[in-house]
Amino acid sequence: MTRWLIFVGRVALGFMFVYAAYTKLQLPWISFAATIQSYKLPLPDQAVMFAARTLPWFELALGVLLLIGVQLRWLATAASLLLLVFFAVLVRSFALGMNIDCGCFGPGDQLTWKTLLRDGLLLLVSIAVTVGAFLTRRKAGDVPAMTREPQPAEGRTE
Amino acid sequence: MTRGARGIRVGRVICTALLVLGMGGHVAAQTPAKRPSATKSAAQIDITPLKALGTKGAPITMEVFSDFQCPACRELYFQTVRPVIDNYVSAGKVYLIHRDNPLQQHPHSREAARYANAAARVRKMEKVVIALFDKQAAWTADGNIDGVVASALTPAEMNQVRKLVRSGTLDAGIDKDLALGTQFRVTQTPTTIITYKGQTYPVVGVVSYNMLKTFLEQLLKQ
């Protein structure tokens, strides 16, 4: 049961990251840079430009690897950390009363309490997948939980 | 590894690869986007050259969809658009067009757009745009747009502007800009549409001059 929940969670996160990357990569990097700048974070222009150019590709890679399901413990940890950063930035901006676009899934996604709820839920799913992946591995010994192959029945080995 | 498990894993990798390839193809097809065909008709609007700065034959066209009552539009104007005018429009590299996109939640923005359009017809738009953005907080609070515009023009120019505003003929031009914005999927202000070699690049929100400069230079090197 736990393994199925982890499976559903990682596939959902994988698709979410791939979709988030897709919406950003449809636009020029400067458009995402403008979104990052709208958060008014204390970042130099060079850092914003670097993030705008690389973050969508990182999200794409993360999403694809989550869908494939390799190295789940570390990928889920990376996804949780990334979502935690996103969530912290969103909460800060919402608390400051910023009337801005979230930019999570391309333009036209206004930052509201619903955005916080959605991203909070995604963060919870990601943390649950991460914890589940570590716990499943601990129970299963040193064999990675989600990549462990079913035990072959006697007489049916290759 | 059993044959079944290997099959599942191979299938999983193939499915993911197909997904990514499909997405990559779509992204390649979408970026940069083709300019909407209706742009040609928008270019035929008589007032457009009066709302523009620079040479029409400049390699880059920048259309800024803006709302005079929007604080982010003010920020973009002073932080980014002014340096672009000084460094790129003056050098003949950028043709800058002001597009009106008054938002419904701003009660005075359409009236401000009317004054700006009237000023465009008497070829004083830039002065009025600067005044409207500079004193945005004041006229947003008291609605006295006329006073702000009057402070930027001579009495004779102001008389012409007032006549045009009272004539009620200026809304058509504003609505055409709004319709063009809809075609460009402008959902918020400011939105800047950059056109280079027939391709359009939307920039949603405020972007610093340094970043825009990097992007413009990147385009000009293509």
Give a verbal description of the structure.
The complex is a heterodimer of chains A (158) and B (222). Chain A has five helices and no strands. In chain A, helix 1 crosses helix 5 and helix 2 crosses helix 3. Chain A is globular, with a radius of gyration of 18 Å. The relative contact order of chain A is 0.16. The C terminus of chain A is likely disordered. With 222 residues, chain B is an alpha+beta fold. Chain B has two domains: 29 residues; 188 residues, Glutaredoxin. Chain B is 57% helix and 14% strand. In chain B, helix 3 links the parallel strand 3 and strand 4. The chains are: A mainly alpha (158), B alpha+beta (222).
The mean pLDDT of chain A is 86
Query: What is the CATH top level name of the largest domain in chain B?
Result: Alpha Beta
Find the structural class of chain A using helix and strand composition. mainly alpha
**Span of the ends, CA to CA of chain A:** 28 Å
Structure characteristics:
heterodimer; A: 158 residues; mainly alpha; 5 helices; 69% helix; globular; B: 222 residues; alpha+beta; Glutaredoxin; six-stranded mixed sheet; 57% helix
How would you summarize what this structure contains?
The complex is a heterodimer of chains A (158) and B (222). Chain A has helices at residues 2-25, 29-38, 45-68, 72-95, 113-139. With 158 residues, chain A is an all-alpha fold.
How do the strands and helices of this protein lay out in sequence?
The complex is a heterodimer of chains A (158) and B (222).
Chain A lengths: L1 H24 L3 H10 L6 H24 L3 H24 L17 H27 L19
Helix pairs in contact in A: 1-3, 1-5, 2-3, 4-5
Chain B lengths: L2 H28 L2 E2 L4 H5 L8 E2 L6 E7 L4 H19 L4 E7 L8 H13 L3 H10 L1 H7 L2 H6 L4 H13 L3 H13 L7 E6 L2 E6 L4 H13 L1
Parallel strand pairs in B: 3-4
Antiparallel strand pairs in B: 1-6, 2-4, 3-5, 5-6
Helix pairs in contact in B: 3-10, 4-5, 4-8
